[in-house]
Amino acid sequence: MDNLKEWSENIKNSLTIEQVKDLLFALGGDPAIKNDIIVARTICHGGQSHKLYYYDNTKLFKCYTDCSDTFDIYELIIKINKLENAEITLYQAIQFIINFFSLTVSTENFVFSNEELLSDWQILNKYEKNSSQKKEQRTIELKYYDDKILKYLPHPKIPMWINEGINQEIMDAAGIRFDPVSWGIVIPHYTPDNRLIGIRERTLIKEEENNGKYKPAILNYQMYNHPLGFNLYNLNKSKDNIRKMKKVIIFEGEKSCLKYASMFGIENDISVAVCGSNLTTYQVEMLKFLDVEEIVIAFDKQFKEIGDNEFKTWTKKLKDLNKKYSPLVQISFMFDKWNLLDYKDSPIDKDKNTFEKLFKKRVML
Ligand SMILES: [Zn+2]
Questions:
Q1: Domains and CATH numbers, the chain
Q2: Strand ranges across the sheet with 52-55
């Protein structure tokens, strides 16, 4: 095994099942973790069935339908690019993974064993140098949906959300509907210029929650999925306020944006949601376009006690995020040092005082 191979293997083996799930989520794979396995949509060949499995013990994927193949995370990235007619190399796939997870990798201590490897790295370096340029050139093909489908869905009162403090007028403004077929709350996602880019659903069936509370909606046999990393939920509503305030609050879930607008008023809404816990360069660029000077990260509390294992993983993730984006924009964190929130709470899940305290005392690294 050569050094480069070993190095890429190390990165791969260091990825947690949660990280791989986040990646699949961002790629529109609708993943669910079952024990040490992830079951996701077969995005490897552009399929819709949930037959793509990831085994954490081997760090390998297996597609049980069209590909009927076993492959690692780099190969998955290569396959997905191929579907969009983009041929990328293994080195570019590695680079993508490093960027996606904001991994900090030192190549300084790396000893090259031969000339050939060195040239591989030169390719990688060249790629890095050109990547900002390339990003602009690469047009991201986003699919838009006809929002006619939403008009035919009922919008009854949703007591569960009203009880959580979401106002009916905010739900109406967000176009929240109800899907009587799947028994789920329908949440349309729009681009900043109000084009329907995807629709997600929050299931109200308890047993279904095991497969993930939120999923792309399937309405009239069509799945309304979209690549989550290429949009920000609620930015169509909050963009003018964000531009004015030069600040944005980023939540994980859509519901937090609705709560925020209910608590502080539509006219003060500066919130967006990433639908997961990853922030992509694309999303940061979207915000920079609005002249944002500070990004306030208000992710769910992902630890039970300060100092526990989850706390360590979580703070590392936030530090990496800071390291990646703080050269571009001021990053701050609404981080619960005072145990005001429960496990997995969003900072907006308790009362106004709690949110304001977390906001006032937000952490800058
Ligand atoms: Zn496949």
A1: 3-137 (3.90.580.10), 148-226 (3.90.980.10), 235-360 (3.40.1360.10)
A2: 32-34, 37-40, 52-55, 60-63, 69-71
